[in-house]
Amino acid sequence: MATLNKAAPDAKSREKYFTATQSQLIWTRFKSNRSAMVAACVLGFMLILGIFAPFLSPYDPTIKGRNKEYQNGAPQIPKFCDHNGCSARPFLYSVERKRSIETNFRWVTEINKEKRRYVEFFVDGWEYKIFDWKFNLPGNQLDFALPGFTFKKHLFGAREGKIHLFGTDSAGKDIFSRTLHAIYTSLAVGTLGVLISFVLALVIGGISGYVGGVVDGVIQMFTDAIRTVPAIPLFMALAAFVPDTWSAEMRFFFISIILGLIGWPTLARRVRTHLLVERNQDYVLAAQLQGASSSHVIRKHLLPSFTSYIIVDLVISFPYMVLSETALSFIGLGLKDPVNSLGVMLQNVTKADVLLNYQWYFIPVIFFIALVLAFVFVGDGLRDAADPYSSTRK
User: Fold this and answer.
1) Is the pLDDT at 139 greater than 60, yes or no?
2) What distance in Å separates the CA atoms of residue 135 and residue 357, rounded to the nearest whole number?
3) What confidence tier does 104 reach under pLDDT thresholds 50, 70, 90?
4) Which of 43, 187, 246, 369 is disulfide-compatible with 250, CB 3.0–4.6 A?
5) How does the average pLDDT of the chain come out, rounded?
6) In the chain, what are the domain boundaries?
7) By C-alpha distance, which of 263, 265, 231, 264 is closest to 334?
8) Are 69 and 97 within 8 A, CB to CB?
9) Residue 382, pLDDT above cutoff 90
10) Superfamily grouping for domain 179-390
11) Which pLDDT band holds residue 391 (cuts at 50, 70, 90)?
């Protein structure tokens, strides 16, 4: 009797396993991977920071929101207790600028520990717009804009003066606000680049794998030619072509499109390989015998058979897109001020003076590393979970 009761849960679990959908099996496998789950939480947190960057940023990340009186300022960490006692509200010390005899009457910044500045939440600050997209593309017919919504509320701020959690740069711009907007920009460039490469890979790889023959040979020659193009010399040539009069939005779309146009061959080859194997299966032949068109067979039968692998490839492609944008902006071939991206911010850490005196400039580097590693671990977890039936069950 005890044996029957013990076998009952196993029978239910096995029935649930064999009747589960593909997405349910992938999610079950993915949840069992602790590193992938932690990376997914980190990635979700980074996405929230990027999406809600204007609300979370206490100040304008551009030169308009700079603090003239706190240039190259150290990070300001809110406190609850000091030598004067404890407070239920977080506070900062007052920052004052004075002329000192020791520095030949130059302006110096001093911290007044006797004067507190309390941190407040949901305060009014600089105006920002949501969905306020203006695209100034070549030609008047391609220009368009979307009306946005104006807000003033921010998560936190200081009652007197300003608060800089990550410090400020040489111009007095808040590094915390710049980092959040940089995450959003880098993710946006990566998303647009991945979408472009995804569409090209599906179309080109699908035609090559399904048709085969001479068409497949010609397409593979073109794919190999694209793969052999060196990225850095290509971008150096394109950087010389891009005029300085282009707007930040135009440069943003230009970089995204180029990244997408050179990033599709790898995924296209995988799509082609899978279609070459699957196009001779019985279910494909049955659909063809019933009069289904080639586009219908590819769209309704072949592509859904490896959707999970496509999703995995998309996730894995993200860190490479982010790395490409960061590298190009870092060497001056990508985005530039006033656009805030991780590559633009990493340009500030190349000076020896920063390493010796302004170590807080490296804070965006931590977010960059966390973002790339999160994508890598999530992609590895999805790749392991993409084929649940092939794993050894414990």
Assistant:
1) no
2) 40
3) low
4) 246
5) 80
6) 76-163, 179-390
7) 231
8) yes
9) no
10) MetI-like (1.10.3720.10)
11) low
